[in-house]
Amino acid sequence: MALTANDIDLGGMSPHFNDIYYGATTPGSAGTKLDSAALLNAVTIAGVMQTIPPTQTYKATGCNFNATNGTDLCSFAITLPTGYTRYIPTQVIVSNASHTLATAVIGLFTAASGGGTAIEASIALTNVSSTSDATNNNCLVTTVTDSTSRSWTVASYPSVFVNLVTQEGAASTGDVSLVIQLLP
Questions:
Q1: What whole-number distance in Å separates Cα of residue 176 and Cα of residue 63?
Q2: Third-level CATH fold of 55-183
């Protein structure tokens, strides 16, 4: 399929490309240079202009990683924009920890207190070893295991619960974010 200006909604803006090459590993080397007309009207480049479903991020602050095991740290009520009925939990982000996390483990579930279906039963937070801003290991970004093979309807699974599977063992709080991909 050849790409045209109609394949992308740029809100009335015209696309412009400078020095685009294909078949080359570095600009200007043994590749074929395209101008914008050639790119838009004559050349098919698989995957370059595909639509990526939008995402939403939910965030809870001040989660107590030293609460009693089995405690829900937070829950996220999933609300989708018009035209979307399904979602894929793709990432969990833990940040802004008040204490180095050495033993805390959380899980994502479809019901309170670790009930319902496990979206991600066990996420060890042991890599959050710094509490200083802009330093390595001051956060943990983890991909949900089934994020490439399982989606959920908001009608059947309207909330995601973050449950403390294993407490930290020392006073510690932090922020938990959930990233979901939206599907029609």
A1: 7
A2: Jelly Rolls (2.60.120)
Question: 183: which 2 tokens?
Answer: 């599907």
Contact 47, 66 (CB under 8 A): no
Residue ranges per structural domain of the chain: 5-41, 55-183
Neighbours of 163 (CB within 10 A): 24
Q: How many angstroms separate the CA atoms of 95 and 101, rounded?
A: 11
Residue type (1 letter), 123: I
Distances (CA, A) of 151 to 60, 88, 109, 115, 154: 22, 5, 14, 18, 10
pTM over 0.85: no
With a cut of 80, say whether residue 7 has pLDDT above it: no
Backbone φ and ψ of 5, nearest 5°: -60, -25
Collapsing DSSP to helix, strand or coil, 27 comes out as: coil
- Mean pLDDT for 10-33 is 54
- 32 close to 135: Cβ distance less than 8 angstroms: no
pLDDT of 45 over the 50 cut: no
Which residues in the chain belong to E strands, given as ranges?
20-22, 32-34, 55-64, 72-77, 86-95, 105-111, 115-124, 139-143, 152-153, 159-166, 173-183
